[in-house]
Amino acid sequence: MTVASTLIPARLRLRDQARVASIGLRARRLRAALSALGIAIGTAAIVAVLGLSSSSQAGLLNEIDRLGTNLLTASSGQSFSGQTAQLPLEAPSRISRIESVEQVAHTGTVDAAKVYRSPLIPSISTNALQVRAASLNLPSVLATTVAEGRWLNSATATQPVAVLGAVAAQRLGIDRVHPGQRIWLGGQWFYVAGILSQAVLATEIDTSVMVGYPAAQRYLNYTSIVHGKPATGPPTTIYVRSQTSQVGAVHSVLAQTANPESPNEVDVSQPSDALTARAAASGAFNSLFLGLGVVALIVGAVGVANIMIISVLERRSEIGLRRALGATRGQIRTQFLSEAVVLAFLGGTAGVAAGVLATAVYADSKHWAVVIPTEAWAGGIGAAIVIGALAGLLPALRAARMSPTEALRTV
To answer: CB under 8 Å to 372, separation ≥6 — which residues?
Structure first.
């Protein structure tokens, strides 16, 4: 009786398979590095886009938490006829009597007054700046500070003295306050007392020049008639700080309290909601940059496929020798597929490191918290591996189909 013995090919251990897969890459380091570069660029773009978006959102939300979410604004809207409505003079005092309201400040826009650096500036060059009469507690209610000089007080509020918003100061070319500094406001000279820091919760203040209500009435003719007599005002925007737990309740009664006769003519808003929406919208452009990252990954995949096809052609003798020594088609296929995956993994890892570094440097320059979402780095490496596997699949199949005699014929 003849006993037929069947030769069963030995299986390569994972460690041995990794060593065999790295031979081709170590033998052609420059080519492998250039091919991995495309994968690295695409992965870095994905990580950086998601990381910067998350870091900017975290920075903005932290700023909102610092400034408080309990600020509400009531501003003059439009009347039924479509004209600009007017808030009652008593609106701030009425609102201050709401039980859950802690602070109330207000401003009045002086539309007739324009501001310039000097009277020599053409009247058309207004720089889109507004003049506002402001209550003395405005900075504390808006949680902003004075960057240069001083804010208005009970004395300077009655005199031709102004305080510039952060953007207004830049457009007027004023970066510091010195004694005797003046601006041309409403056809006359006003002294500059200070410059405000950026008002994150009230961006309209940044492009405004603030004066006291008494000064606005006396020098800019900002008055209204009450019972036949001139009075200071009216306010156009009222800023309300309420108890944080009662923001919703105050919001629901703010318009009715400000103008009981025509509450529909009062626009009520919560600035922190707009900032939160901006934080969410800041990721709207992510799809564009992520698309560019995907394109870079595809380009990298083409590079990986190219190097693997060339590698198969150059290494036919190696393939034939391994097949002659007993390597199966599956082992040849796994070898070349593993090379492509390792190449993509190295490129993806380098890309993640570059993306994290770019995010950290930029976020630190903006004083943001560095946030790298898990899906950014994990997705980047995962996408690189998948694309590398797809790019190496065809060359691996081509190498596995090569017969030993055909391969050795080229030696």
So the answer is: 47, 50, 51, 54, 356, 359
The per-residue pLDDT for range 330-383, each reduced to its tens digit, is: 777 777 788 788 888 888 899 889 989 988 998 888 877 788 888 778 888 888
Tokens coding 341: 């995956």
Task: Report d(CA 12, CA 169) in Å as an integer.
Answer: 73
Sequence-separated (6 or more) residues with CB below 8 Å from residue 304? 35, 36, 38, 39, 340, 343, 344, 387, 388, 391, 392
Coil/strand/helix, residue 47 = helix
Q: What one-character-per-residue DSSP string does 335-373 give?
A: HHHHHHHHHHHHHHHHHHHHHHHHHHHHHHHTT------
Cβ neighbourhood burial of 410 (10 Å; 0-12, 13-18, 19+): exposed
The token pair at 27 is 């033998």
- Looking at the chain, the whole-number percentage of residues with pLDDT higher than 70 is 80
pLDDT digits (tens, 9 = 90+) for 132-150: 999 999 999 998 999 999 9
Quote the tokens at residue 335: 């070898």
In angstroms, the CA 10 to CA 24 distance is 22
Q: How wide is the angle at C-alpha 215 spanned by C-alphas 213 and 218, nearest 5°?
A: 110
Amino acid identity of residue 44, one-letter, is A
| Separation of alpha carbons 235 and 90, rounded Å | 9
The mean of the pLDDT values for the chain is: 82
Question: Could you tell me how many residues make up the chain?
Answer: 411
Burial of 6 by CB count in 10 Å (0-12 exposed, 13-18 middle, 19+ buried)? exposed
Rounded distance between C-alpha atoms, residue 180 and residue 230, angstroms: 32
With vertex at residue 328, the alpha carbon angle to CA 322 and CA 334, rounded to the nearest 5 degrees, is 90
Is 60 exceeded by the pLDDT of residue 6?
no
Q: Contact, 304 vs 34, CB < 8 A?
A: no
Question: Token pair 């009664």 is at which residue?
Answer: 253
